[in-house]
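Minutes, methods subgroup
Present: GH (chair), OT, SY

1. OT presented the first of two proteins processed in the latest run. Sequence and structure tokens recorded below as shown on screen.
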Amino acid sequence: MLLTVVTATYNSEKTIKDTIESVLSQNYPNIEYVIVDGSSDDSTIDIVKSYEDRFKKKGISYKWISEKDKGIYDALNKGIEISSGKWISFLGSDDYYLEGALEVYGKEIAKRPDYDLIYSKVQIFQGSKDLKLVDREWSWKIFKRRMDIAHVGAFHNRDYFIIHGNFLTSYKIAGDYELLLRSNKHLKAFQINTVTARMNYGGVSNQNIIKSLNETFRAKYETGKTPLLLCIWDYLYSYTIIKLKKIIYSIS
């Protein structure tokens, strides 16, 4: 079964090599790698081009485009449209897979071809320090209140996009959460009991906390149909926790 990995990039010259190498080093025999660049003005595209021969020699389909876009979810939608795999994953340009990750996914997907989402544990890191392990079994009761699984390291059945549509480009941070809320409690998700990827702390959502909270509120209320009072409570709770952490950090 063909597995597609999509990476959106923009001025990612400092991190994109590790991301690409992590895909290139996988031993799973049927991979397609798609890079969608937002017209970078650093050396990102030169780096991307430099890997063409190595992917070709290994027999891995390698596609890339570089053009202006309307944000990360517009770029990911482009990746979906030019991809061919039955299952699609989205790997950040500063994240990377661990050795053997796609082989693990391939085996689990083969057992559950009718599922919507197959995801794993993901290690969040910053520099040389491991910060948090994202490790939670999916349940609608929790998911409708917060995004508690890592989008990095998750494979989506292409049929999900056919049924529910692609990412909404009006979202800039929480579009992955909104996408999975569309199927409500009917989402068929399975967690692999393995760490398959490392996610760099410092992504868009961490740099724009208030915007992330606002978009999460919107996704829960409009798409997830979570009651308004719960959305307000969750917003205020998350905002308070963030403020307290900043205060503690400033005096420590």
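2. SY then presented the second protein from the same run.
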Amino acid sequence: MNEQTTIASETTGQELEHLRMLSIFHYIVGGITALFSLIPVIHLVIGVAMVTGRLEGTDPEARFFGWLFVVFAAVFIACGLTFSGFIVYAGRCLRERRRHMLCMVVAALSCMMMPFGTVLGVFTLVTITKPSVKALFSPR
């Protein structure tokens, strides 16, 4: 029985280390996601320039396309930054071992972002679906 207790405590220590590492990687992937979601800022600037008439020869059709640039860029940036915020928040929740379902949903959604998000999402799902790891999360 003493041997089983030692194995259980080693397993828990290893699982806690896995959660800590997953938390760190969530912070990293969240930062990378935020950086890549800011790429359409150039489209936003060009669209604003088209709408305000700062570009030479801006006709009404160009202003319409300017609004398309502004709207699509703003939506893409807002969605990307929101998703990166969720990834970082899931990393914090993993570190604190709370909100198990939120961590699972964010891990599943991050699988869409190849290659880093896919790897992170799969490893997170594999780790947090283990019953012993799920038991570590507080019921909040």
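Chair's summary of item 2: Helices lie at 2-37, 41-52, 60-96, 100-110, 116-128, 131-134.
Next meeting: continue with the remaining queue.
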